[in-house]
Amino acid sequence: MIQVFAASQYAKRLLARASLALAALAASAQANAPLDVRIALVVGNSAYSGSAALSNPANDAKAMSEQLRKLGFQVLELRDGSRSQMTEAIEDARKRLHGRSGVGMLYYAGHGVQIDWRNYMVPVDARPRSQTEVVAQAVDVESVINAFKQAGNRVNILVLDACRNNPFEGTASVKGLAQLDAVPGTFLAYATAPGNVADDGEGENGLYTGYLLQEMAKPISRIEDVFKRVRLQVRQKSRGNQIPWESTSLEEDFVFNDGRGAGSVVAVAPPPKPRPEERDQIFLREKVEWDRIKQSHNPDDFYAFLQAYPSGAISEAAQSRLNQISQPLVTATPVQGRHSVQRDVQVGDEIEYVYRDYLTNLETRRETLRVTSIKDGLVEINNGKQIVTLAGGTVRNDMGIDFDPPLQSLPADEFQIGKKWVSRSQETMPKNIQTPIGDVGWVEQEMKVAAYEQITVPAGTMYAYRIEASLRSYRGLSGKVTYWVDSRGTIAKYVRRAKVSLHNGMTRDNSWTREVVRIHKPR
């Protein structure tokens, strides 16, 4: 049990030991990792005709090719490519990767357009005057995805710095590129959120690629952390006008730089997960930093925190706080056929829930939640009996348990299939006769946006995002929860399969379901 979260000398020694242990595990895994076949197709198109010409893509492709070679990739580089050259290069990459269970990567910089929810890379010889001509003259991003699938790659990486203003008037249905779900084994990255436009950059490289080159060079950085740090830096530099976007379905860890120097082709196997006591100390380190900044109104404090802990147990709560005090100016358009989640909470909103026993499905109770106050990003329900953030973090639950940082049950940004995050909080029990000062410990949830599907609850039939989570706490609570979030950000259905370990060695079932019966919003 963690009773006090303080940066004592004893705690610092524990943190140092945990860090050394994790480094040793990583080094051991790296030493035993298999050879890694890495092939990258790098395309940079700048020399478009007339006003369509761009300054940086060819420079970006040259710099990216040099960086990838240093990181052990065999690079197929194409600058200012025609359509036939681009399609030939895609086929060449497929052949070189075929049957090798390798890592295939596409980096594309240049003009890109979307038509009917499909994304196209524009060759320099394209002269489209209509949407039909774009399809005939451009290269569908899907053709690269299919080539990688046919090759049987274990990891696919697609980076599209291709969201400049469309110079071909009337040829694209929507500006920017369309959002796609990453197919299995794929990491997909865009220079800006789908449906938006990226900056071509003022220096030798584009804004996005310049930061990406820096982060890829850092040793032993998971691919998710590389792109999260890039996103933060681009967002900060552009003052929220450009926010990169990623979607991943990778089932294994991948790093660009294994720390062995230029030309290394050794895959880094993920280190074993930290033991419980190591996880406690890692959280302690983050919590000390969180306590230092959590009341701050300076966005730079949260940018710095997220740079240090891009995938930590408090990162989603920190991202939520950053969004609150530094509102992003752009959001991603949803995937075709899906709704975006609008969190437009108002005072007077009411939600009625019915609770049922999980095994018998018999109703056990009903509960009405009414928003009674909204202030400084905090939503008070039933006069403060519950408190949540506007971004879906729980500050106080219906049992009076307080959470610091907020327990982030919803993603801070857009809902994306495959989105994963961990949320861990200090948990303070309410004061009572047994615990006059309030018992203090922790609770942790690992979550994933698993699907978008239709559900039926007493309030009606609707489409919702399904989130699957596992939970555990210092009090012996463990189990699985599944919940569905509708277009209003309401948890429409919640299924909990959990147990509590008792002091006598026995366990107590803690399973139930909750469904929304009625939603009322004031006019």
How does this structure look, described?
The protein is an alpha+beta fold. Helices cover 26% and strands 30% of the residues. The chain has helices at residues 9-31, 57-70, 83-97, 131-137, 141-151, 207-216, 223-237, 276-293, 299-308, 315-325, and strands spanning 38-44, 74-79, 103-109, 112-115, 118-121, 139-140, 155-161, 186-190, 245-248, 350-357, 363-375, 378-381, 386-389, 393-396, 402-408, 420-428, 440-457, 460-473, 477-485, 491-501, 507-509, 512-520. A twelve-stranded antiparallel β-barrel has the order 10-11-12-13-14-15-16-17-18-19-20-22. A six-stranded mixed sheet has the order 2-1-3-7-8-9, with helices on both faces. The protein is globular. The two termini are 47 Å apart.
Fold topology:
Blueprint lengths: L8 H23 L6 E7 L12 H14 L3 E6 L3 H15 L5 E7 L2 E4 L2 E4 L9 H7 L1 E2 H11 L3 E7 L24 E5 L16 H10 L6 H15 L7 E4 L27 H18 L5 H10 L6 H11 L24 E8 L5 E13 L2 E4 L4 E4 L3 E4 L5 E7 L11 E9 L11 E18 L2 E14 L3 E9 L5 E11 L5 E3 L2 E9 L3
Parallel strand pairs: 1-2, 1-3, 3-7, 7-8
Antiparallel strand pairs: 4-5, 5-6, 8-9, 10-11, 10-22, 11-12, 12-13, 13-14, 14-15, 15-16, 16-17, 17-18, 18-19, 19-20, 20-21, 20-22
